[in-house]
Amino acid sequence: MTDGITYAAAGVDTAAGDRAVELMKAAVAGTHGPQVVGGVGGFAGLFDASELKNYNRPLLASSTDGVGTKVAIAQALDKHDTIGFDLVGMVVDDIVVCGAKPLVMTDYIATGKVVPERVADIVRGIAEACTVAGTALVGGETAEHPGLLAPDEYDVAGAAVGVVEADELLGPERVQDGDVVIAMASSGIHSNGYSLVRAVVKHAGWGLDRNVEEFGRTLGEELLEPTRVYSSDCLALAGDPKAQVHAFSHVTGGGTAQNLARVIPAGLSATIDRAAWEVPAVFKVMRELGNVPWNDIEHTLNLGIGMIAIVGKDGADAALERLAALGVDSWVLGTIAADSDEAANANLIRGAKGVEGGSVRLLGEYR
C-alpha cells in the first residue's frame, strides 16, 4: 500500500510560506505607525480610524492594481527587490489623484513555488515604497499555485484605501478655462506598456544584459527602474494654497492624453505641446528599435511624464517652485480652454476609459 498524497507532494510548501513571513516581518513592521493595531500575522490588518473623527465629511478612496508584464523582466533577471515598489506606485498614485491621503495597503503574491527569499525581496520593495508614500502595509497574502504557475513565475497585485475631506476633493469639477497643465517627470517606463516593450526587445534580439550607451547601464537595469511614487509630493503640492491645485492625472496605461482627458470636464479642452519636453532616451530607443509609430507609442507609454497637475492660471509659478523644492522635475505642459467647434477636426482624445468629459489636443512634434 502506497503512502497517501500530502499537501507537500501536491506542490505546496507551507513551511516555506512561514519562512517568507519571518523574512519580511521587519520590513512590513517598519511601515506601521501608532494607528496600526495588532502588528503582523493577524487574519485582518487593523488600522485605528479615530483620525477620521476630525473630518467633517471623510470620503474613502480605494484603488487596486498590479504591475503587468514587467514581472517577466524581474523574473528573467532574477531580481525582485524593485517590483514591489512599482506595485505601490501604481496603486497609491491613483488614490492621490482625487486629493486623498493613502492610509493602508495590502498586497497579494501568487507564485508557482514559494521561495522565501524571493517573496521577502518583493515585500521589502512594497514596504520601502509604502514608507515613501506614508502608507501602512497592514496585510497581504502569498499563495502557492503549483501546476498553474511555473516554479519561478509569480504575479503581484495590491489594494489601498485613503481618505479626503469632501470639500477638498480634487477633480474635473474644479478645472476651469485658463488653468495651466503641469507635467511631473517619470522615472522611466514605470509599469505600463511592457507587452509592447518586451515585443520590441524580442524583435531586436537584444539581451537584458546588453549595455546601452544611451542609458549608461544595461537594458535590464533600465527596464526595471522602479515607478516613481508621487503621492506625498502631490499632497504637499495640493496643500499649498498658492499652487491652486484643481486636479491631478496619473499617467498610466493609455499615455498622457488619454489619462489627462479623464479629469477634463465637458466643454473644456487641454492643449498639449509635444515640444514642451525632451522625450527620455529609453522611449526613443524603444521606438527606433521596433519602428513603433509615434501615434502608437504616445498612446501606450508615458514618454517621460508620470503625473500631471492642473492648477489655476495664477498658481503655475508657485506650483513649479514647490515641486522643485520637493525634488520633482516639472514643467508647463499646456493650458485649458473652451472646447471650440474649430477643434472638432483636430487630433483630439475624448471619452478615455469610459469617462465622458472634455478633450485633449496634442500639437507639435516630440523632441
UniProtKB/TrEMBL annotation:
Enzymatic class: ligase
Domain PurM-like N-terminal: 60-164
The entry's keywords: ATP-binding, Cytoplasm, Ligase, Nucleotide-binding, Purine biosynthesis
Superkingdom classification of source: Bacteria
InterPro entries, alphabetized: PurM-like_C_dom, PurM-like_C_sf, PurM-like_N, PurM-like_N_sf, PurM_cligase
Pathway the protein contributes to: Purine metabolism; IMP biosynthesis via de novo pathway; 5-amino-1-(5-phospho-D-ribosyl)imidazole from N(2)-formyl-N(1)-(5-phospho-D-ribosyl)glycinamide: step 2/2
Matches recorded under SUPFAM superfamilies: PurM C-terminal domain-like (SSF56042), PurM N-terminal domain-like (SSF55326)
Residue ranges occupied by any PurM-like C-terminal domain in the UniProt entry: 176-343
Enzyme Commission number(s) of this protein: 6.3.3.1
NCBIfam families hit by this protein: purM
Stated family: Belongs to the AIR synthase family.
Database matches in HAMAP family: AIRS
Name of the protein described by the UniProt record: Phosphoribosylformylglycinamidine cyclo-ligase
Record organism: Populibacterium corticicola
Lineage of producing organism: Bacteria, Bacillati, Actinomycetota, Actinomycetes, Micrococcales
